[in-house]
């Protein structure tokens, strides 16, 4: 079956396209499997389902956002053939954009804090991006990587496009157009709840909105938050924004403000769960041991949250969450005895799973 993204692309190739192959890398983004997490489903009496976003070509859920942002910019005439895409991050969005930009022939320029690992810079350069490490200063400082990305793009307009993933609603839109409908079809409309954590808010807001509208409000959408994020308290306090405090080992999630991607959907979110790192890290190991799935911390946090939501809603429910990326990019930390100890998380890993701590 072609993904909905592939179906939209296929007609442009004309009548010579007679294969069941998808037309190029960007059409291989999305349409990921929905996996029943058996041990946790048995434990809770609910169906706990994980959307396998780590199976996207760039290895994460952010491939969708990268494609959605680039495609909308093309359609709006903001990105022309041979143009430049400018991004201000070192994470999964940068990797997704690098793949999409190579596949579509755009130059990609990335500004990122110089505190990021050499591996990240090297990977992005290997994928063809031009990377500019800049001093790691707070958002309020004009030298912050986000502002540098924006200024660089503005200085080269109209040939450069700043992705602005936090407030560019093309991000949530692609989840509304693809992730939401895929989950609806894969569960045949029987899901009761969707829960996931938030970085930009694109995944949660776009997917939640589709599921809410399609089910006439029957599907409950929940947010899962790591320590150091303000969204959990925003939702549970009825809309008060607090200062950020605390921190988490989870990468790519946690938010200090209501991004434009979140803005229109957050008032419809049914509730929020706050998940400590100790539970998240234990779930990284449990998912590997019981399900054979090797996932990063944000995915593990999402699964912990899905289990807690199952316990709240009671047996017989179907709960969907997002398996955002694999553990590959984090394994030197997540599976290191020294690192776990330094974060006081060694004791969070159950004794019988210590055999996986090989570094
Ligand atoms: N997990 C990981 C590993 C990520 O990189 C991100 C994106 N920053 C997310 C989850 C959250 O996705 P979103 O930006 O759509 O909220």
From TrEMBL:
By its UniProt entry, which InterPro entries does this protein fall under?
Answer: Cys_Synth/Cystath_Beta-Synth, P-phosphate_BS, TrpB-like_PALP, TrpB-like_PALP_sf
For the protein in the UniProt heading, the enzyme class is transferase
Q: Per the UniProt record, which EC number(s) apply here?
A: 2.5.1.47
Q: In which pathway does it act?
A: Amino-acid biosynthesis; L-cysteine biosynthesis; L-cysteine from L-serine: step 2/2
Could you list the residue ranges that cross the membrane? Answer: none
Record's family? Belongs to the cysteine synthase/cystathionine beta-synthase family.
What is the recorded function of this protein according to its Swiss-Prot or TrEMBL entry? Catalyzes the conversion of O-succinyl-L-serine into cysteine, the last step in the cysteine biosynthesis pathway. Can also use O-acetyl-L-serine.
Protein's recorded name? Cysteine synthase 1
Organism equals Exidia glandulosa HHB12029
